[in-house]
Amino acid sequence: MEILICCFLLLFTLLTNFMRTAFAPPARYQWPHGKKCAVMLCFDVDGETTALSEDLELASRVTTMSQCEYGPNVGVPRLLGLLDHLSVPATFFVPSYIVEQHPKMTEAILEGGHELGSHGHLHEKLNTLTPEREAEVLDQSLEILERVVGYRPTGFRAPWFENNPGTADLLKSRGFRYNASQMGDDVPFVHPNGLVEIPGNWMLEDWEQFAFNADPAWGVLPEDCDKVYTLWHREYEAMRDFGCCFVLTLHPWLSGRPSRVRLLERLIGEILDEGDAWFARGESLADYVLTNPEARHEINFDALPA
Asked: pLDDT tens-digit profile of 239-285?
């Protein structure tokens, strides 16, 4: 018996010595309230501009346009209800054309305690615009937001995430505090001009998962919600372990559909239950970044001090 016990202890010791521990790098950011991860829920309310930014003649395509209109008309009310049910804040990036067409929807977003961000006028791809035209579109959208709902945003999301070399300086000159368009990091950083960048990535975006239209052809094949849940939740878990900022970008004409609302309820609910995340609007994230510069842990070799 003693020999068997000794053999068991030896085997246990050997197995323990060879067991690998999980990779646990230093947290990229020290978040408020001892939280391990920041979560920013973004809703890009492109609505009719999804089609009109591609071709104004699509306005006569009734079915295509109706699919886009589903976002402001059905998706946003349903998603606002979900956010209220879960008591979490969000940021809604809305083209000013949509603000004009759906003023009561826009007011409902603000009344729900959420943030309204700038998102172009007709969802213009900035890389197709001259610097002068880019400035004109930004000024036009700001004027509409102030006129229609009396609100001047401090955050910007470029349509299709496309920025130009001069976009950061243009935003800073118009009083913006942050941009949420680039993808070169997984925590916020500050541009040389003081503008905060809150990066996202295509994996945490619902267009790649759910978008589909026959003609014009958008997307490929809508994914199963369980598959998308697994993709997004695993990324959240890893970003939590690495101290990152989980930026989820959603479109109400896609994620406002019933089964996808259930997907979001499940995902957000589980993150809430785990208790490790700070849910924040973009403006709150930007304020925290600017007032806590020491919270960021830099890992880019070329950006480290000599």
From this structure: 999 999 999 999 999 999 999 999 999 999 999 999 999 999 999 99
C-beta of residue 167 within 8 angstroms of C-beta of residue 179: yes
Sign of torsion over alpha carbons 213, 218, 222, 228? negative
Q: What is the pTM of this model?
A: 0.93
Query: How many residues does the structure list for the chain?
Result: 306
CATH of the domain at 246: 3.20.20.370
The DSSP result for 29-97, as a single string, is B--GGG-SEEEEEEEE--TTHHHHTT-GGGGG-HHHHHHHHHIIIIIHHHHHHHHHHHT---EEEE-HH
Count of structural domains, the chain:
1
Using an 8 Å Cβ cutoff, are 58 and 52 in contact?
Answer: yes
Cβ atoms 283, 155 nearer than 8 A = yes
